[in-house]
Amino acid sequence: MISEDTFKLIYSSKQPISQSVVWSAPSNIALVKYWGKKPVQLPANASVSFTLSNCKTITELTYSCDKLHDSRFSFDVLVDNVANESFRPKIEAFFEKTLEFLPFLTAGHFTIRTANTFPHSSGIASSASGMAALSLCLMSIEKSCHPTMSEAFFLTKASFLARLGSGSACRSISGPIVAWGNHGAIDHGSDLVGVTLNRPVHDVFSSYQDTILIVEEGQKQVSSTSGHDLMHGHPFAQKRFEQAEQNLTDLLEILANGDLTGFISIVESEALTLHAMMMTSHPSYLLMQPATLSIIQAVWKFRQATGIPICFTLDAGANVHLLYPNYCKKEVLAFILKDLVAYCQNGRYICDEMGAGSKQLNEYKIL
Ligand code: PMV
Fold this sequence. Notes:
The protein has 367 residues and is an alpha+beta fold. It is built from eight helices and 14 strands. The chain folds into two domains: 4-200 and 356-361, Ribosomal Protein S5, domain 2, CATH 3.30.230.10; 207-353, Alpha-Beta Plaits (2-Layer Sandwich), CATH 3.30.70.
């Protein structure tokens, strides 16, 4: 059984030597959503996600033994090769939360060079892939002091650290399907880390497609942190957590038997319930835009007319993720071009699919 102490075991008085490491970590899209949390960054219910392939963050972390700044944490951040102060508070908070597990964080100077393969303005949250990539880099530095560290420990601790940065980030270390949270039906399921779904998955889900329709570029008006907080005292919270539990049980069965009708029913209900929670909290808020609803209605109409098993899901924003099997890619892309592009801001959409997870790179290069 994993506990927080598991990740302190590798504690060492050894200081790393100066070095640079590079990792790429993907974004993920939840099928059963995590919405609502307990301290510290523990999910109120278990969730499961598809790991993506093309939407990812590439991060290079350079560690030098000497501090450059007088502050508790000495670091600089470059986003797209330009110094970026706006990331500082989030990284400082992350270092603070993870210091007890990574004692070298106060020992030297870090230069964090990071970029996303998807545009910043796209409205796609980069916190999951960003926190995952940074956590993996930090683990590479820890591992340099402990060369015998197992790969399993390395990846599990990376997930643990990423979770402390942003909950859903713990599902961005591995792939193609990752579960996070204690749940009777998930082997080794844990509130502390994401685990790769280790059970048979039907062929229809291999290379499952995710086309992200960009309805709204830029930052959303209400952060996920505030949204999670509003689940405290929410009139429907308890029922929602029970529903997520049941949806996850049912979805695991569907992932094994390939029942796409069942898949669509759960995934769409999860997306709408997530937004229903926002619309029924106090204060209430709305992240969907008119174009979000127009797309959902067009998807329903298209599915009914063609029988093509496409469905939608939503993150905490207005953009729409279209999920569908690889074999109907051609028809769906034609549908997007004909009927949906008009709803996308500046006609933008991103084609992605399920992916294998994070990867260490030899050099910092945005592909
Ligand atoms: O990881 P956070 O704290 O940004 O929360 C994200 C929650 C959702 O993306 C809306 C759902 C999920 O499970 O990813």
